[in-house]
Amino acid sequence: MKKYTQLYNRLKNMITSGELLPNEKVPSVRKAAQIYDVSTTTVQNAYFDLCADGYIIAQNKSGYYVSDIQNIQTKEKSFNKESHIRFDLSGGAADEDSFDFRLWQRYIKSALRQKERLLSYSEPKGEYDLRCAVSQYIKEKRNVAASPDRIIIGAGVWPLLQLLCTLVDKNCTVSFPDKSFIQGMGIFSDCGFEVHTRDKNADIIYVSPSHMTRWGDVMPIKRRLELVELSHKNGSLVIEDDYENEFLYNVRPTPSLYALGKGNIIYMGSFSAMLLPGIRISFMVLTPELIKEYNKKSFRFAQTASKTEQIALCNYIRDGHIKSQTRKIKRLYCAKTKAFCDLLKKEMPDYKSEIGENTLQIKLCGKFYGKISDFEEFGLKVFIEEYKNETIKMVISPSAIPQKCISDAVNALKTVLKGKKI
Predict the structure, then answer these.
(1) Structure confidence by residue, pLDDT tens digits, 317-345
(2) Which residue, of 21, 125, 373, 387, has the fewest CB within 10 Å?
């Protein structure tokens, strides 16, 4: 059992048993790491799942508090969440059919044959040939012109944000679109930054223009231009996380802030959504000023992404597979989401269900007659947006559900929401 799952279960039991009461503050990420002798990343992951499952809530400038969510089953037996998951509707997993494992294995085997190259650690910035491939890729896809020397590779967005925290003044204020950006807010907060939401006057503004909220709202071009102009006028630094730009469905991709900007925008992206969650390779394009600061401190940094995977991904991109993989995923996930939503409307007509305007996520709202713990007991992993007055709002991402299992997943969800005996 992973450490964050153990911590999740421990804290969940303290909440369900009444040891931690509603509205009681839980230890900060840093304090919890000391108490339970784990890393802050482990705590952040546990807190993220506790928030997603409704057990705790994050409050701006204050920390985490036990929620007053109703009908949480008391004295619930702890168990390994992951081993009981039958249907992951949270968007945190992928469908096996979405990825050509044999093709990727060939690239991995090819990388492993470069024996001399693997005898040394990866460059702190990441493998140079991969940075060259990424530079060309983002220029073609997003009109982001950046030399390989300004690109930093990392094992996910969060390690890159932690690195960024060492390059900017800690007296800066940081703003996020809303409180759903739990991990990012936690990283900056733990590093001593003052974190706000929707603060246009903040020194650092974090945005995800192609996926602004859990519902997948897209920032319109007018707002993008206003933000670029405002940041230039105020001298604020903008962090553009271009998350899910490749997966907009009903609109054409809007220009990146970086392409519209005037030199004060950090561009970030990841290949996990296009490949697999288990292949954690992301990148960050630093501003000219910040790359100078990075170079001064480069001896402090180490590369977090696998060198083997970096070599494999470089050749995978160069051979054009990343483009065909993106097209494949869009076709597959679009068909599954439509099928899932159509079945929801047929089986649960008294619930409001609709596909998000620009993303492959389903908004579901209606009465909830069961208990929150029923989702886990029935093997469902879900994201609950809101639960009060016996009404639940959910964001459903069926991308990880095999097509042959869509009917079973809908029936399982219906059983839990209707409060039927499990």
Answers:
(1) 999 999 999 889 888 988 999 999 999 99
(2) 21
142 contacts 329 by C-beta, under 8 angstroms: no
Tell me, what amino acid is at 155? Answer: A
Helix 40-52 and helix 182-190, axial crossing angle in degrees, nearest 10: 150
Residues 205, 206, 210, 213, CA torsion sign: negative
Q: Do 254 and 219 form a contact (C-beta atoms < 8 A)? A: yes
Interatomic CA distance for residues 239 and 197, integer angstroms: 14
DSSP 49-110: HHHHTTSEEEETTTEEEE---TTPPTTPPP--HHHH-SEE-BS----GGGS-HHHHHHHHHH
Q: Is the pLDDT reported for residue 80 higher than 80?
A: no
Residue type, 292: K
- Cβ–Cβ < 8 Å for 164, 266: yes
pLDDT at 78 over 50: no
